[in-house]
Amino acid sequence: MRDLATGVKYFLEGQRWVARHRRWWGFGLLPGLIALVLYIAALVALGFWADDLASWATPFADGWDSPFRSLLRWTLTVIVFSGGLLLAMVTFTAVALLIGDPFYESLSERVEEMEGGAPPKPDIPLWREILTSVRDSLSVLARVVAFGLLLFACGFIPVVGQTVVPVVGICVSGFFLTTELTSVAMQRRSVPLRTRLRLLRGRLPLALGFGVPLVLLFLVPVIAVFAMPGAVAGAALLVRELVPVPGPDPTDDPDPVPGEDIGEDNDDATGTVPAS
User: In 43-155, where do the E strands start and end?
Assistant: First the structure.
């Protein structure tokens, strides 16, 4: 129960952090807004073409009487559009993270700097970072789909399918949402996906306490856009507990760099724009 409460605490602290630093909140909104526009356009196109797709997929029904043919194709149209909507909800976070990698990297790093220092960024090319992000996102998505199919099948079990399965589904979604959101800070620490999953499984209540409230918010993509910056900030705080930043080397020069001060975020006061 303690880890569960800690996960909820990081969820709330992330939202509080961006509420206190509104310029960074606005900076973190951009990728989510871009992803939302793309998804809305895709869903509108799907809604426009779903009927034609249903007709194309059921040529055998051309000779049926009108009520039965229309009922079959209308049902298939609803299934196609509902499937697209579900896919949009499942993949929105991964796509927003992919689009916003430079934005969320800057936001996550700033959060860590204010909490006592961020680990140095790995010296790897940008194309390799993007390739790793895509590969990890696809791997997580494959796991989500596998669990989704299993839970869908279990949904036909009387009573259990209407009570236990939805709760388990939300918990599974919360775990993998936490996996996606912690990827930004984990990649900065060069933690591979397998190790990330192992760490989160070892602190499962912590991962669920952070991810489940977000899943409930992210059921509506519009809310997901506005909550995403806080989710990234909270994930950075959570990773600091899972993989603490090593302390300074005692042989290093203890004197600070003249004029350097990362103890406070003065973006709002100075009017500077966060650097990506």
Answer: none
At 132-165, the pLDDT tens digits run 878 888 888 888 888 888 887 887 788 877 788 8
HEC assignment per residue over 199-225: HHHHCHHHHHHHHHHHHHHHCCHHHHH
Q: 56 — alpha (psi -120 to 50), left (phi > 0) or beta?
A: alpha
Chain centroid to Cα 196, Å, comes to 15
- As a 3-state breakdown, the chain gives helix, strand, coil percent values, each rounded to 5, of 80, 0, 20
CA angle 169, 17, 104 (to 5 degrees): 70
This prediction has a pTM of 0.72
Q: How far is it, in rounded angstroms, from Cα 273 to Cα 60?
A: 60
Residues 6 or more apart whose CB falls under 8 angstroms from that of 61 comprise 68, 69, 72, 73
